[in-house]
Amino acid sequence: MTDSPPSPSALALVAAARAAMHHAHAPYSRFAVGAAVRLTDGAIIQGSNFENASYGLSLCAETVAIAAANAQGRLADIEAIAVAGGAIAASGRIGGSAIITPCGRCRQILNEAEQMAGRTLSILCAGAEGDAVQQHSVAGLLPHAFGPANLGITSGFARAAVESRDA
Known about the structure:
Elements: H1 8-21, E1 31-39, E2 44-48, H2 61-71, E3 78-88, E4 94-95, H3 104-117, E5 122-127, E6 133-136, H4 138-141, H5 155-166
């Protein structure tokens, strides 16, 4: 975890994650989460949690944002992600300053994205409100992770897929 103050671009990414959390479909947990992925060209792709009555089919905000980047052929372009969230009050207001971090499943998805991008991803974590932001790395959140490299798949694979698509 990094203790230095977040850069203006990091704060903008956290703001985008907080904006996305307002689109969460969270009628069961009453906990809204938003995520925002920044790509190498500065583009931002947002996602929010999407719950399902069967619970196990629910999607986390981080997974939604990363899958959206992948759907645009941009998985290898991810360089940072911000995640923010908080409890949904009876009034519908989302609040709380407690910093949230990705769940275990999302940490594994982030590891996949990092290995396929071939660069260390910056992971910014925040609450629904307040100034506190924590910056983490995938290795810090998920030490000894299993990923594409364990299967002999490298970031060059991702680049080759993009190049063949664009040819």
